[in-house]
Amino acid sequence: MISAPPPKRFGKTQYGTSVAATLITGKCEDSIPVARQAQQLTRHGAQANRATLNRTFLRAGEMLSPLAHCILQQVASSDLVLADETPIRQQNQTSKGYFWVFSNEMLSAYVYSPNRSGEAPMKVLGDSHGDLVVNGTGMPAIGARG
Hints:
The chain has 146 residues and is α+β, with helices and mostly antiparallel strands. It contains four helices and five strands, in the order αααβββαββ. Strands 3-2-1-4-5 form a five-stranded mixed sheet.
């Protein structure tokens, strides 16, 4: 009897890349905390250590960082960029944080900022050129960048 080799593990964990992808999708797309995902895996008979799953999630983020940077560059170099910020509650913090979204026709990029100062748009868009469309929260509704 011949069997296929097992899938490669993700980092030094017992989990493969499919678990990392499931963690990312669950947390970022479906808003399911890693702790709850660990409970789900345990219910289905898989060994799920919450700390290991958190490390797997963070490691996946590190590995995807170059891709995120590339997406940000693509969006910033577009002729038209749509931007908006959304306040988020932060665990163990008294102040809000903000997620900024920057989009072009094909891609969306999200950037965390601890405040609403405008540093995030300046960092992402820098000296790029084109039009910026925002929702009127202190920036011009439609304006030229650069």
